[in-house]
Amino acid sequence: MDNITFKNITEFNQAQNLPAPENPLFSIGSKILNADDIQNCVSSNKEMSYTNQFYIISLKNIVSGEIIYGRTKYDCNTGTLLFSAPNQTYTVKDIVVSSEAWFLAFDEDYIRGLDIQKRIKGYHFFNYNVNEALHLSPKEEQTIKSIFKNIESEYQNNQDEFSKEIILSHLDALLKYADRYYKRQFLNRKEINKALFTRFKEILDEYFDSIQLEENGIPTVEWLASKLGVSHRYMRDTIKAETGKTAVDQINLYLVEEAKNLLLAPNASISETAYKLGFEYPQYFSRLFKKKTGQSPKEYIENATMN
């Protein structure tokens, strides 16, 4: 599998056949592919791995290929919005091309020390895998395109003291719309969300039924996400949208339910129960158990015995 690393925005623009950036820390551009270009770009069953050391937001209209949405194949011929954070490596299989594509790239230094830098850290979609892209409705696509065009217009304008502030205000709006549309996507894809959560529970069941808990400790969200074939941030957001609880909450609920069974066994030991459940320190187990049930493990055993 080929691997390409873009160290700076200038390298990225060159690879996309775009002009050199007006600002080495920020660039925006678009290109329209004709039928011959599209035919030449499609590479069946070929995997390409990319790493960029800056943020990239791209908007494409799908014309050929297939996007893998988690473990589900999802065909889409509407706008697809992709987000990539610095030093994030992502892999594309069966390269998807578009008749019209927009690219926006900016370096961390372009937003360093500004409020938008803090807000971007809160947008999980920058750390989703490329196969967890945002699929826009036609109306949503037009809204996003208009923002790209507004940014490009300001970018191509004669730069002055207001230029960066105006560009960042448009970028901030784009990110807020993306956040709204991702939440809509989670709601609209209940069946996909439900399937992912069902598989999440099955993996936990398998893990708890085996000896992995004692040997390897409590499973992490990163490990569970890798078993599901999605990024851990996407898994967390999907499970939160489906259940109202975080992935960590779901893991803890499993631990507490299993603890209840173990604690009611004859001559049960709280310490042994904690170790069996993968806790390194029994007091951590007792603290979690009381937080979730309202009573300590000792109180739970006593109350169960009385009833």
TrEMBL record:
Membrane-traversing stretches: none
Molecular functions (GO terms): DNA-binding transcription factor activity; sequence-specific DNA binding
Keywords: DNA-binding, Transcription, Transcription regulation
Top-level division of the source organism's lineage: Bacteria
Keyword hit for Transcription: yes
InterPro entries, per database record: Homeodomain-like_sf, HTH_AraC, Tscrpt_reg_AraC-type_HTH
Domain called HTH araC/xylS-type: residue spans: 201-303
Name of the protein in its database record: Bacillibactin transport regulator
Species of provenance: Saccharicrinis fermentans DSM 9555 = JCM 21142
Lineage of producing organism: Bacteria, Pseudomonadati, Bacteroidota, Bacteroidia, Marinilabiliales
